[in-house]
Amino acid sequence: MLTLTSARVEIGARTLLKDTSLLIKQGEKVALVGANGMGKTTLLRSIAGDHTLTAGSVMVPNRTGYLRQETPRLDATDGQTALDYLMESSPLTAMHREMDRLTAAMSATTGAELDMAIEQYGELQDRFAQGGGYELEATAEQIANGVGLDDETLLTPVAALSGGQRRKLDLAGLLLAGGDLFILDEPTNHLDVSAKRWVMNFLGQTEATVLVVSHDLKLMDSSFDRVLALENAQIDSYKGTYSDFVRQRAESAAQRAHQARSLGREASRLTETKKVFSKGNATHAAKRRALQRRIDALTERMKDHAPPVQRRQLRVRFPEPERAGDQVLDVTGLSKAFDAHQVFSGVELNLRRGDMLLLVGVNGAGKTTLLRCLAGRETPDCGSVRIGANVKVGYYAQEHEDILPMVSVLDNLRSSVPDASEGELRGVLGHFGLVGDVAAQRAGTLSGGEKTKLALARLMVARANLLLLDEPTNNLDPQSVEALLAALQHYEGTVVLVSHDAEFVSQLAPERILLLPESQVTYFDEKILEMIPQR
């Protein structure tokens, strides 16, 4: 069970939640929805204890698991494999170590101490068996395979895992650990179709309470029985799936509009009646005052029935870049390994002005590492990357490593165009919906979707003619994804793209793809979409 009591959530000058009380019952499956920047991630952080409530209180079960939106670093020991790390997530592993300690104690003691150790071991063994301890490794492998970590990955050192693999391992560990409440922020990021389906089934069947933020509409339509809509610092609750919520909200909006019109007509009628008593004695003055009180009351009621404030839609248009030479990028014999792990080898690539190339491969195949090599952020072990004449590279990093967390949003953008005025910078931020007090907010406190928008804003003002994009749609709401899609469709430069969003890729229809780790370049085919997740 989860309880919020008179909770207020603020970041800087922004109020994200106003004095809200909320109860989520044990076993409920609840989706938290809202546009980017509404405060969904900050609310989850507040519930999980990562962010302090400005006012009010929150109560959660002791056994609460929290999946953060950002890719975790994972505090693993040197050489620890993914499977070993996963096993450590379960409290049953610590219980097994205690059983081993008691076994050693029983062989070294006698008398009363031995009797006590035997009794403790028996009780612990019963709990271990009932909790599934003897099947723990099989269960761990089943969950890992379910979220898309194959047996080879489980034997890979944690330090060698890609960002997507670390994210999957974090999710698998949380599910293996179990608990009474799961707080999940974008749990299906980096998951392919089968892994998403497995997670949907798991969340639908678990006895734990589940609170999820997700832009995955299929997940919210299949596994949840209540939707919480966060908008204008308030939460409205809707029973049913996401589709039920959309329908109910449309019906509610139509009803509010009808009531507002009725109240408006009554206020107009009373205003006309008041004019009849515009002149006259004290009796008429008293009637005017009485009528005005009724008009004021109707006006206040109309505010309650007014439609919600419409947020500015993301409008992205990359300015026409300076013309590059015909030959934009030439890659020859590129290879990269981390210790004994060969990430990719023998990459051969030639891009001309206006080309769009998609990098495709499972998590850990080297897509991000290759992009970093192309951007000059990583040094390849062998091979060469030659940038063409008059080419300016713009790199969008999946982990937002170029965004300075302790610096304001405005100053982060200013670092890309030092000579721009504050008005010009605020205008650019406005195109991305980062308006008002957000500009003065420290970038590290932004939600994942807002960080994505800031990173895209920095790309836009840089006027690059070669864009290297690593998962640019992660954490964006559907409307923002559509705006980014339109911008890239009109972009006149060259693009190298990594994306797990099959629908987004389908709409872009890149001319060629580079398959990793095979290092094979081929022409785009719709069948390739089966290899990557769908939104």
Architecture per CATH nomenclature, i.e. the level-2 architecture of the largest domain? 3-Layer(aba) Sandwich
Helix content: 40-55%
| Class of secondary structure makeup | alpha/beta
Compute the CA-based radius of gyration.
28 Å
**Which CATH top level class of the largest domain fits?**
Alpha Beta
> What composes the largest sheet?
6 strands, mixed
Oligomer: single chain
| Helical stretch tally | 17
As residue ranges, the low-confidence spans are: none
Examine the coordinates and then state which fold CATH places here, giving the name of the CATH topology of the largest domain: Rossmann fold
The number of domains: 4
What is the CA–CA distance across the termini?
Answer: 30 Å
Report the portion of residues in β strands.
15-25%
CATH superfamily of the largest domain: P-loop containing nucleotide triphosphate hydrolases
How would you sum up the global shape?
flat
Total beta-strand segments: 18
Q: Average the pLDDT over all residues and give the rounded result.
A: 86
Neighbour order of strands in the largest sheet: 5-6-7-3-8-9
